[in-house]
Amino acid sequence: MSLLFFIFNQICSNKWQKLRTGGPGSGKGTQCANIVKYFGFTHLSAGDLLRAEIKSGSENGTMIQNMIKEGKIVPSEVTVKLLQHAMQESGNNKFLIDGFPRNEENRAAFEKVTGIEPEFVLFFNCSEEEMEKRLLSRNEGRVDDNIETIRKRFKVFVESSIPVIEYYDAKSKVRKIDAGKSIDEVFEEVKKIFTPAN
Ligand SMILES: Nc1ncnc2c1ncn2[C@@H]1O[C@H](COP(=O)(O)OP(=O)(O)O)[C@@H](O)[C@H]1O
Ligand SMILES: Nc1ccn([C@@H]2O[C@H](COP(=O)(O)OP(=O)(O)O)[C@@H](O)[C@H]2O)c(=O)n1
Ligand SMILES: [Mg+2]
């Protein structure tokens, strides 16, 4: 089983001090679509699964909707269950898990429930300014792509996701990519990481 986590977060701890990097709008979904085509992974976006759960009329729908609108992280119990179900349904054994884990609770819950760890974690390095611009012109009708929620999402990334990045960095699992370039240029970088050197 291959499992990749995509966490594209703002990093401000010592080692990463120089980077003004970020998460929402850094191009996770866009690059995942490319990776699926080239490398045969199943792309599972935690955010997409949560949005589908709202649409399905689930009893958790209102709670999830409110959390997303506020840029908050939905309780792991809900998200991990959705991911696990989607993994079982897929019939594949290679997964790109996009936008997850976003906090320590996400990480610990996933590992506890599935017993698996990612092979590596991709980190997209992109300025907040650029991400903000991309999110504001994404035009997918999302309730969280407005300037007020975007600021909250950036803050949540800084506060909740740094420990997760550091956890994986300590295990030498983080692969950093300059995501501020064009879609094609970013994919060239991504390809290098996915193509084994020999
Ligand atoms: N490298 C890039 N340069 C310019 N725009 C991009 C790039 N990558 C993605 N985008 C655009 O930015 C927006 C956010 O991309 P998306 O893949 O949804 O990011 P994420 O999933 O990380 O929030 C989309 O409208 C997408 O078309
Ligand atoms: N692991 C996750 C992923 C997303 N989410 C929620 O879903 C929202 C959108 O996530 P997303 O990954 O689709 O957003 P982008 O980073 O793609 O812009 C987040 O801001 C959270 O409110 C969550 O609670 N837990
Ligand atoms: Mg996305």
Structural commentary:
This protein has 198 residues and is α/β, with parallel strands linked by helices. The chain has helices at 28-39, 46-55, 61-69, 76-90, 104-114, 128-136, 147-170, 183-194, and strands spanning 2-6, 42-45, 94-98, 120-125, 174-178. It has a five-stranded parallel beta sheet, sandwiched between helices. Helix 1 crosses helix 8, helix 2 (46-55) crosses helix 3 (61-69) and helix 4 packs across helix 5. The protein is globular, with a radius of gyration of 16 Å. The two termini are 22 Å apart. It binds adenosine-5'-diphosphate (ADP), cytidine-5'-diphosphate and magnesium ion.
Keywords:
single chain; 198 residues; alpha/beta; 8 helices; globular; binds adenosine-5'-diphosphate; binds cytidine-5'-diphosphate; binds magnesium ion; cytoplasm; ATP-binding; UMP_CMP_kinase
Overall 3D shape: globular
Largest sheet: 5 strands, parallel
End-to-end CA span: 22 Å
Give the radius of gyration: 16 Å
The class by helix and strand makeup works out as alpha/beta
| Strand element count | 5
- Unreliable residue stretches: 7-22
Q: Helical segment tally?
A: 8
The oligomerization state is single chain
- Give the helices and strands as they follow along the chain: EHEHHHEHEHHEH
* Order of neighbouring strands in the sheet with most strands: 2-3-1-4-5
User: What is the mean pLDDT?
Assistant: 86
- The proportion of residues in beta strands is 5-15%
Distinct ligands, ions and cofactors found in the model: adenosine-5'-diphosphate, cytidine-5'-diphosphate, magnesium ion
Portion of residues in helices?
40-55%
